[in-house]
Specification:
Blueprint lengths: L5 H35 L15 H43 L7 H4 L12 H11 L1
Helix pairs in contact: 1-2
Length: 133
């Protein structure tokens, strides 16, 4: 499958990497920024006499936790996106070679055939049979 669609896989991996990097950067950056602001505003300590002297220490800990959580989330997201793409390509290959039933949403069916002809799903076949009666 990869040998038959190298451009699609390469594009999907590049887009996935870019989206993962942007997502991790935004999550980690906002988490660290909020931590530094809260530490400097003295929101974690209830008495005004005490102040956080080094706000970068808790910010670094938040950075580590935010990076871990965002990495786990985006790895699941990336894996799901690659799985959906692989299912779409499998459906495309099977329907092109056998002319079998297509399990793709109607919005994606026009991408499956080069000629752009419409696929009939079960509802269309049932409607055609009812019209014949």
């Amino acid at each position: 499958m990869i040998a038959g669609n190298p451009g699609t896989y390469a594009a999907m991996n590049i887009v996935g990497w870019i989206m993962t990097a942007i997502g991790k950067g935004v999550i980690v950056g906002l988490s660290v920024f909020v931590t530094i602001v809260l530490a400097q505003e003295n929101k974690w300590v209830e008495t005004p006499d005490y102040k956080v002297q080094q706000p970068f220490v808790p910010a670094f800990l938040v950075l580590l936790v935010a990076w871990l959580v965002s990495s786990l989330f985006f790895s699941v997201f990336d894996f799901a996106a690659l799985t959906i793409m692989q299912c779409f390509l499998t459906c495309k290959e099977v329907s092109a070679t056998t002319g079998g039933k297509v399990f793709a949403p109607k919005a994606l069916r026009s991408y499956l055939r080069k000629t752009g002809e419409e696929y009939k799903d079960d509802d269309d076949i049932k409607n055609d049979n009812k019209e014949d009666d």
